[in-house]
Amino acid sequence: MLRMGTLILVLALLTGCASVVNIPDPEPPQIVDSTIVDEFDTLPAPSGGRVVAAVYGFTDKTGQRKPSDKLANISYAVTQGAETWLIKALQEVGQGEWFQVVERVGLDNLTKERQIIRQARASVGDERQLKPLLFAGVLVEGGITGYDSNTLTGGAGARYLGIGPSTQYRQDVVTVSMRLVSVQTGEVLLSVDATKTIISTGSQFTFFRFYDMGTQAAEMEAGHTINEPVSYAVRAAIEQAVVEIVKEGERKDLWSFKDSSND
After folding, report:
1. What pTM value is reported for the model?
2. Angle CA(218)–CA(219)–CA(224) in degrees, nearest 5?
3. Dist. CA 255–CA 263, nearest whole Å
4. 61-70, 102-111, 131-140: lowest mean pLDDT where?
5. Which of 26, 29, 117, 176 counts the most CB atoms within 10 A of its CB?
6. Cβ-proximal residues to 54 (8 Å cutoff; 6+ apart), any chain
7. Do residues 100 and 52 make contact, with C-beta atoms less than 8 angstroms apart?
């Protein structure tokens, strides 16, 4: 009984000491504002008008599930609705001067709504006609073609007498592919790929000690992890691919940049 009471007292003292130990915070993943981010807003305007583009879908072609060490997850590793970010990127690239996006993802809903309008007008004798739908000059196709987890792992740590911190990190890579297709000829005009890394970091503090009380051991651990959102990586890769589409189209004389000296 005396030995058990002594052990409880020692553990209580250790808990009190450990509560004041500062656990080192892991460094948050650094989101680097690369030239791609700058170019997304500062691309020169086109010399002609905006290109009418249609997006029918931008799907996950990897089939990857969320990584797990113990269970097979049902959830996918990347978003299944990346076309929303692609549409937004096309609308906003170069301060919105480059693409005029027409609705195609929800085309069935749009067609039904126009039919309702026609029927409602006909029922009251309104002979006004709806304007024809705007047709696209190019299709923007592609998808998320790669999600590679644990492409780089590592860590570091140090302990003295069973006490010390440790840090671990992991890197994943997401890849998107995008192509520009001519509606009139079906020719693939441009094709680009873009990648974005995803960094996860974690820190841990460990206390481990044996005591000569019937070979009793005391152990405590504390730590936390920071994960860069996969959705941010997918969005950044899509925006990068849109920038590359614009620049590659200018190099291949599909369009040209507006000369700012003439303004």
Report:
1. 0.69
2. 160
3. 19
4. 61-70
5. 176
6. 101, 102, 104, 136, 138, 139, 140, 183
7. yes
